[in-house]
């Protein structure tokens, strides 16, 4: 008696299928984690780029304003205010010429740090301030922990308030700006002024 020839079965065993599924699931999990890391990095880069764009726009506006500083005192409800007034609490108020680039007129403006840790720009509608007239306030840079201003006097010494004496020039020789952001970065810029 001849035994019937056995047919060889072609295909995968259950163990081979389970091993293949296990390897595929590991690859899928690693690619998911990699994609998550790429998306997190993209979000972080976008946030950083936006932070530095806002800081750059603030610096450009601030530099433009102080380069147009006018040596003109102003009249206000309490009498006269100096052309440039800087306090130790980092409140800077000054007169500014118009830039001549269209509708830009002479202004009285101020920069200060508010309670929400934002640098505010205060704008009065003209140079002389009528009694009871309040400035328009605009937040120009958020996320600021420290806002410090120092002024270079005629003796080439940095002071933290301006004017320091009645004999001071109407505008200091230079301004040193120091900003510490909430994320820890420190930015220091020195601006020469047309005093």
Q: Could you describe the 3D structure shown?
A:
With 195 residues, this protein is of the alpha+beta class. The protein has a domain at 61-192. 28% of the residues lie in helices and 31% in strands. It is built from one helix and eleven strands. Strands 3-4-5-6-7 form a five-stranded antiparallel sheet, with helices on one face. A four-stranded antiparallel sheet has the order 9-8-10-11, covered by helices on one side. Strand 1 and strand 2 (79-81) form a beta hairpin. The longest helix has 54 residues, at 14-67. The chain starts with 13 loop residues before the first helix and ends with a strand.
Compact overview of the structure:
It contains 1 helix and 11 strands; from the N terminus they run αβββββββββββ. The chain is of the alpha+beta class.
Distance between the termini: 120 Å
What percent of residues are in strands? 25-35%
Largest sheet: 5 strands, antiparallel
Low-confidence spans: pLDDT under 50, at least 5 residues?
A: none
| Tally of helical segments | 1
| Class by alpha and beta content | alpha+beta
Order of helices and strands: HEEEEEEEEEEE
State the assembly state of the protein chains: single chain
Arrangement of strands in the largest sheet: 3-4-5-6-7
